[in-house]
Amino acid sequence: MLSDLKLVIRLQDIDHRLAEFTREIAALPKHIAEIEKKLVSHERKLEADRAALLANQKERKKCEGDIQVQEAKISKLKDQMLQVKTNEQYRAFQSEIDFCKAEIRKAEDRILELMTESEPLDKNVKVAELALKAEKIEVESEKQQAREKTAVVQTAERELQQERASIVAGISPGTYKTYERVRKGRRGIAVAEAVDGRCSVCNMALRLQYFQDVKRGDQILFCESCQRILYYNPPVSVEATP
Fold it and tell me: Which neighbouring-strand residues pair with 3?
């Protein structure tokens, strides 16, 4: 096979690998950004649950304080009732005491409601805190793995780039220029194998004589349909073993 043809075949393999490496390296930051975004969402949900639990606790304390105020008022009113001289004054004090007792019952009922509401909130916060802690560890682990994988891919990429430069140096300038032109115009695929008389990429049939010329491999030939560089890979003869 023509030397330039062998080299562009290898060059195509290298360019495929380099394209894969580029996609891998580009995909890793996106993956990290996605899991970090998810983590931030969970952190915000936890903060919202904590804020709701704190508001619940504050309101309970306020209700407890209101009860103490009303109980103090009742105690004071009862002391004052001992000094009244008419039934009308007595009834007025009793009315105020009943009002204070009603306020105490309202506050107690609200405390019970808040206690009922706080139980699932408290549970949610505790569960979320544990889950978030585990998630942060997982995210850091994935970030470290991504950094390590990036380093490995970048090393392999540099080695391939060096091999590519060596191959390019061995190809005639005209052939390399043609390879690059076709590669850029055909979505990165400049070389195609001719299989069973067809271009393996665009699947168009080759003229019989043209296919024979491709099989000889002594010149750079192109698919007459997609313009890719064609090569023929002869089947390997496998001898029957006893």
Answer: none
Structural domains present in the chain: 3-170 (1.10.287.1490), 174-231 (no CATH)
- Residue 15's alpha-carbon distances to 4, 131, 167, 233, in angstroms, are 16, 43, 12, 20
Nearest-angstrom CA–CA distance, 70 and 99: 9
Sequence-ordered list of residues with C-beta below 8 angstroms from that of 223, at least 6 positions apart, any chain: 192, 199, 201, 202, 204, 206, 230
Q: Give the start-end residues of each E strand in the chain.
A: 191-195, 198-199, 221-222, 229-231
Entry pTM: 0.63
d(CA 202, CA 181) in angstroms, rounded, equals 18
Alpha-carbon dihedral sign for residues 211, 16, 14, 185: positive
Give per-residue pLDDT as tens, 53-85: 999 999 999 999 999 999 999 999 999 988 888
Which residue's structure tokens are 């019952």?
A: 105
CB proximity list for 127: less than 8 A, separation 6 or greater: none
**What amino acid occupies position 112?**
L
